[in-house]
Amino acid sequence: MPLSRPALSLGSGPRGVQNARRWVVDVCSDIERDDLAECAELGVSELVTNALLHGEAPILVRVRGTREHPRVEVSDASSEPPLLPSLGYDDEDDDLLVTFGRGLSIVARCSTAWGAEIEEHGKVVWFDPASEPAEDGVEGVITGLPDAGPRPRSGDGQLEIELRGVPLRSFFGFQMHYRELRREVRLLALAHEDKYPLAKSLSDHFGALDRQLSEGIGAYQIDDAVRSHKNSTDLRVAIARDGALTVGRFLELLDLADAFCREQRLLSLARSTEQREFQRWFLGEFVRQQNGEKPLAWHETSVTSRRSSVS
Fold first, then answer.
1. Could you give the CA distance from residue 13 to residue 98 in angstroms, rounded to a whole number?
2. Could you tell me the domains of the chain?
3. Is-above-0.70 flag for pTM?
4. pLDDT in tens, the chain (311 residues)
């Protein structure tokens, strides 16, 4: 059974909790971590219950992370942050704890680390299951909250990058991979920074890139192209003049992350050949143009030239 088992999609009824419990136990067996099955089952039961009561469809369950430190995730379409419980609650607490806070307190006692990652179109509540429930729970953390800081704008110290003939299907796939990998390495670094220096390094570079490349990169041009039923479009992106160094290092780290995935040291899939070549061209254009070279359109370059564009 591959490590990157597809996510489990749950319906709105109570059977979703039962299905999630069985599914997570099976995954623990698949990755030979039966020692974590009890806490994984208890924790996912509470998170799915909370998602059904307080979240929005679709509700998905995944297992990510590594064999040594697998992470159970429950995602839903509500971006409302969960109310983190105070540790050491009293059994006589009010009814809110019965439906929400009490469940997260159980998750806290069944985890070595846990928290919530707020995303653009929802949230992921996650936990690293412990080998056995503890009397005192660990404190949860919320990450991914909207950044109120300024985004880079074209002007002094900025270089305008031209990306010509961007294939929309590949671009959307790049956005999805970027967001998933960014979340993956941020959570892995958060919970086990000392054991996974690659995750910490990637997470730091994601933070730097987010200042260079906002998630809305070329949004109005992309929207216009989609409405016009185009298959490709041109983008113009402002980046700090020294940002190419960050992009170049990021490309190297992506290749290293792929190697880790192929060695099954990460519970996620390595990029496909198509994804890898598009990202090499797309990000490689930042490096080339920062070095003074003229823009090279996607359709003008072969696989060989794309591979050499950042060498």
1. 19
2. 8-143 (3.30.565.10), 158-308 (no CATH)
3. no
4. 334 568 899 987 778 899 999 999 999 999 999 999 999 999 999 999 888 888 889 999 999 888 888 999 999 999 888 776 654 444 444 333 333 334 588 899 999 999 998 887 899 999 999 999 998 888 888 887 655 444 444 455 678 889 999 999 998 888 888 777 777 777 877 777 777 666 777 777 676 666 555 544 556 778 888 888 899 999 888 777 777 677 777 787 778 778 777 765 666 667 888 888 998 999 899 889 888 899 999 987 654 454 554 44
What is each CA distance from 91 to 46, 95, 211, 304, in whole angstroms? 17, 10, 46, 65
Q: Distance (Å, rounded) from C-alpha 181 to C-alpha 202?
A: 9
Closest CA to 116 of 60, 173, 187, 54: 187
Tokens 């009824």 found at: 13
Among residues 109, 124, 30, 108, which one has the least CA distance to residue 70?
Answer: 30
